[in-house]
């Protein structure tokens, strides 16, 4: 049987090509996450829809796109059948009843980023839009919200205006309303009606951040699952303010003036579905009690917290993340039982406090422990002994010295992958480091010795940062680097090395030796590192005649050779493909 002829396939090919062209011309409606995807602009629509404004594009399905075309007035000649109208990013100042009252099929009206004022917005026209579901008026100059919006409304965005007042029927009596955005306005307690969502019992998302509210609004719908009140002037949370919010999962209260006196032990206790609570950057002095039992993430950073009582966290058995950094905690002010029972807590941030030692009773299932920037001067033999599951430990920028770090302090950390001891006063690389380590940082110390066997058995180590110390070649035991069979990055910059180390591992990819005292690079310097990609040697004592160019000739993977700046005789020719030495990583 013969195959179909070209002429027989041609009509089908043309049809498929036409469909592809139609799909490729589809203009997307910006910011409409909750809407169905709009259909595409069909070629020739202008002639079929004579009521499409000249500056705009229209589709047969009723989408009118006039976004960003420089309009200073509401477009005329709009079809009565328009369903989506995009007018964002223009300079429209006035909308009258006559402009919109005939748009009975309109479902989406996007007016964000225009020059609309309250005086220029005749909001009576909105009440006639019986199908309107999505209204976007963000980034205008409104001082008060429209008094009446249609009951069909699903989402309303009034963010970034100058709103000082909301009216009872602005958002009230809207049974389909799901989300309201009022952030970045000038709302005060007096500008909110007592029952602003009366008859709108399906609201799920409410954002009122960056206003001037002093107290939590009352009578909020029980259906809320996300409430944003950050960056207001909140000083207190009235008793029972949240008791009705059984479905609330996310509550944002950061950047306010809340104190422990402004709330009680029952403030959050009824929020049985709450998983995310942000109380950061307030005026709390103690970790609040009565927290909801299903909480997963708790932000308490940037307060003035001085203590954690033994029972403060006893109710949050499912807590996974606890952020307490930038407070005023001392080790003795953390009750030994404060973290007891938190079997799911895997991330604890407690940096930038006043800890004098590793706190007792740390969560036993922790995986990430960040206690940098404290005043810790000692790590005892058993301070870390119960942290069997720890994978990341940051002790940088404390007051640690070598004599006060017990040589068995890390013996139980058999799952530890990342350890940072930078910015302390260590003279010796600590002994007994976990063999599971993949990243080790001990920069900005006073290291002058890596004792014999300190790196033995660390076959998983991929990156070691020892920059800005006092290491010399004879202070590092012979064969130290060769033992690190997985090492890809070795940073020995800002030390006192006189030569390129001779025992580099074959796995090495990046070697940082800048700002040392290296005066020569022999031909054999990189014989054992065939896959190296970056070599950094600037700011040493090298000259044109002290670098054997053949030492780089066989390095087929080399991408960066930084050797010229700061050396004795300036820029030196690389000898690789005739290119000059690269001064910066590419």
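Sequence proposed for the structure above (586 residues):
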């Amino acid at each position: 049987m013969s195959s179909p002829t070209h002429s027989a396939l041609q009509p089908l090919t043309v049809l498929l090509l036409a469909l592809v062209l139609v799909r490729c011309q589809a203009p997307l409606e910006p910011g409409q996450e909750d809407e169905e995807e709009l259909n595409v602009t069909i070629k020739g629509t202008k002639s079929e829809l004579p009521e499409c404004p000249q500056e705009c594009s229209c589709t047969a399905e009723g989408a009118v796109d006039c976004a960003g075309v420089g309009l200073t007035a509401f477009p005329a000649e709009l079809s009565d059948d328009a369903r989506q109208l995009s007018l964002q990013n223009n300079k429209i100042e006035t909308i009258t009843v006559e402009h919109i009252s005939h748009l009975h099929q309109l479902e989406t009206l996007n007016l964000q980023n225009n020059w609309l004022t309250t005086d220029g917005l005749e909001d009576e026209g909105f009440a006639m839009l019986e199908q309107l579901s999505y209204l976007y008026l963000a980034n205008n100059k409104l001082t008060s919200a429209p008094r009446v919006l249609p009951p069909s409304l699903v989402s309303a965005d009034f963010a970034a205006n100058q709103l000082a007042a909301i009216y009872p029927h602005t958002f009230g009596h809207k049974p389909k309303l799901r989300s309201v955005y009022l952030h970045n306005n000038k709302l005060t307690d007096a500008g909110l009606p007592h029952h602003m969502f009366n008859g709108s019992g399906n609201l799920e998302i409410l954002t009122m951040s960056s206003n001037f509210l002093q107290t939590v609004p009352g009578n909020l719908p029980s259906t809320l699952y996300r409430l944003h009140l950050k960056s207001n002037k909140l000083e207190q949370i009235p008793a029972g303010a949240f008791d009705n919010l059984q479905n609330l999962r996310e509550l944002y209260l950061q950047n306010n003036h809340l104190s422990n006196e402004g709330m009680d032990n029952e403030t959050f206790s009824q929020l049985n579905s709450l998983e995310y609570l942000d109380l950061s950057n307030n005026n709390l002095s103690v970790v609040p009690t009565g927290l909801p039992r299903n909480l997963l993430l708790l932000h308490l950073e940037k307060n003035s917290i001085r203590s954690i009582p033994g029972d403060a966290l006893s109710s949050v058995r499912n807590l996974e993340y606890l952020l307490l950094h930038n407070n005023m905690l001392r080790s003795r002010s953390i009750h030994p039982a404060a973290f007891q029972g938190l079997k799911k807590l895997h991330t604890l941030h407690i940096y930038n406090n006043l800890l004098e030692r590793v706190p007792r009773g740390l969560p036993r299932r922790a995986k990430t422990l960040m206690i940098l920037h404290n005043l810790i001067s000692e790590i005892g033999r058993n301070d870390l002994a119960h942290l069997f599951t720890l994978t990341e430990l940051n002790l940088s920028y404390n007051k640690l010295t070598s004599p006060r770090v017990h040589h068995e302090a890390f013996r139980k950390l058999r799952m530890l992958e990342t350890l940072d001891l930078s910015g302390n006063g260590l003279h010796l690389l600590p002994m007994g480091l976990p063999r599971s380590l993949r990243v080790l940082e001990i920069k900005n110390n006073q290291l002058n010795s890596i004792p014999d066997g300190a790196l033995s058995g660390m076959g998983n180590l991929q990156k070691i940062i020892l920059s800005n110390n006092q290491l010399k070649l004879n202070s590092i035991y012979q064969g130290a680097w060769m033992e690190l069979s997985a090492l890809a990055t070795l940073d020995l910059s800002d030390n006192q090395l006189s030569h390129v180390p001779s025992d580099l591992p074959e796995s090495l990819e990046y070697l940082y030796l800048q700002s040392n005292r290296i005066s020569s690079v022999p031909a054999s310097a990189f014989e054992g590192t065939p896959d190296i990609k970056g070599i950094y040697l600037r700011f040493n004592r090298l000259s044109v005649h002290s670098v054997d160019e053949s030492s780089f000739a066989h390095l087929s993977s080399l991408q960066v050779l930084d050797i010229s700046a700061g050396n004795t005789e300036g820029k030196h020719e690389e000898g690789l493909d005739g290119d000059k030495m690269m001064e910066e990583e590419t």
